[in-house]
Amino acid sequence: MFLIYPLLFRLINRAMARPVKLRVILADDDARKLILPEGLPSSTEDLAQKITEMFQLDGDIRLQYQDDDFGGEFVNLTTITDVQDKGTLKVIFKTTGQNQTAASTPACLMLCQADDSASVSSFETDDTVLLSSPDESVQSTSRSAPWPLVFPIPCFSYDSEIILQQANAEFHENRTRLSPSPKLKSHILEVLAEEIIKYKAYPTDLDLNTVAEALINKHPCLREQGSYNGCYGWKISLKYKMANFRTKLRSVGCSEVSINSMKNKRQDQYHAASNIKKPRRAEVNYCPQHPKGETSESLERERVDLLAAIKKRNNDKVVKEKMERTFSYRRQEVVQEKPMIAEFKSRWPALFNVDEINTEFMRITTVPLEFKFLAMLDQYSDSLMKLFQSKGGVTGRTIKNIMQPISQNNSIDMRRECILKALCVYLKG
Signal sequence span per UniProt (predicted)? Predict the structure, then answer.
């Protein structure tokens, strides 16, 4: 609770700020609406960072705005005062590696990639976010996106793609299903498991079912005869493959699954089976691996340096970089050791700051906390107001006085301010 109250008071102040609406162009055929409930940030760098977080973009970007002095042509954004409410911004990616690999891609795999694009675009909505591949030289071990609405089926080996394409053509012509050889089926399951682990180490039955459905949608020749949905057998095979894959990852020291190793548990075998540490639904990065070249010892030294860094003035950038670098070390400490709050606060005081709470939430869930919080607050405002009305006693009278300004000014800013203040009182009562 001690983390909730400072965040709520911060949100109250931001709720009073005038929201800004922007049209953000990500590509020639992709424009998004962006609402900044707390208004414009203080600098263009902060605005670019917010856009990167909101739309989960990958890589460095710069922004352009429409300059009226040049007939509305796009010009690089250098000062935040050039951004107007309901204005249009254009995102320019500074680097991209897509063109560098196209020439060396085999024709069969290029066809596979084209099929991927077609299958994904047919399921796109206005809220779909397309992520480009990160540069391998700076790629983090942390996941960058939650479980997708439509699971992307990757390309298989060169010879497997040839077999599947020929079988798909045969299926479309005379509905003949392919009976995959053990070698082909094993290869398909192995590639799918490697793709699933990019999102989850412990997928649910529903997750595995979406993967199996995506597989038969892309390769209808693999649809099963007699199955109620055409892919039940694939789902069961994926379930066993993921269990075997986790065993292999555990043997090489993958932290996310090695925490469930029997030798690391103090309980007997009966209790250990029911005490598996799995991420919750929103936790994308539950227990990530350390960054390349880092060890627990080196990150512990980084943590000690962080204790000194937070005591210096105007040192936010250094603190932020060190907190980012030690994320995996901090998560493994939380998951494996389950420290008491007082102990954890003494070891990681920089985390107990509103900005770092937001950033840590983004690291774990890939979702911006304040933006999501205000959106859900608006969604449940009516329900919360009914809940407040049912509260009696001194707390109820205090909440009634807090909610009184809404009767004179029912703007979204006033509603948020009053509801957040009333929620603080309600939680205390």
Answer: 1-17
pLDDT value at residue 114 = 42
**Cα–Cα dist 92/64, whole Å:** 8
Which secondary-structure segment (H or E) carries 371?
helix 369-379
pTM, to two decimals = 0.59
Q: Are 62 and 94 spatial neighbours (Cβ–Cβ below 8 Å)?
A: yes
- Could you tell me whether strands 30-36 and 20-27 are parallel, antiparallel, or unpaired per DSSP bridges? antiparallel
Residue 187: predicted pLDDT: 95
DSSP 97: -
- The helix-helix angle for 107-121 and 205-218 (nearest 10°) equals 120
The partner residues of 31 in beta bridges, in order of sequence, read 25
CA 252 to CA 261: how far, in whole Å? 12
- The set of residues, in sequence order, having a beta carbon less than 8 Å from that of 141 and lying 6+ positions away, is 288, 289, 290, 291, 292, 328
CA gap 13, 3 in Å, rounded: 16
For residue 59, the cross-strand partners are none
3-state secondary structure of 391: coil
pLDDT at 101: 35
Distance, CA of 377 to CA of 148 (rounded, Å): 24
Containing 359, the helix (H) or strand (E) segment is helix 354-365
Chunked mean pLDDT (size 10), the chain, 429 residues: 51 60 84 81 83 78 86 85 87 58 38 42 37 38 81 93 94 92 95 93 91 94 89 94 92 84 49 62 86 91 93 90 93 90 93 90 88 87 91 91 89 90 88
| pLDDT given for residue 6 in this prediction | 53
| One-letter amino acid for residue 41 of the chain | P
**pLDDT of 163:** 95
Rg (CA), the chain: 25
Question: How far apart are the C-alpha atoms of 11 and 409, rounded to whole Å?
Answer: 19
Q: CA 122, 126, 132, 134 torsion: positive or negative?
A: negative
Pairing verdict, β 30-36 and 87-93: unpaired
DSSP 175-216: -PPP---HHHHHHHHHHHHHHHTTT-SS--HHHHHHHHHHHH
CATH of domain 18-96: 3.10.20.90
Pairing of strands 73-76, 30-36: unpaired
Q: Quote the pLDDT of residue 17.
A: 55
DSSP string, 18-62: PPEEEEEEEETTEEEEEEETT---SSHHHHHHHHHHHTT--S-EE
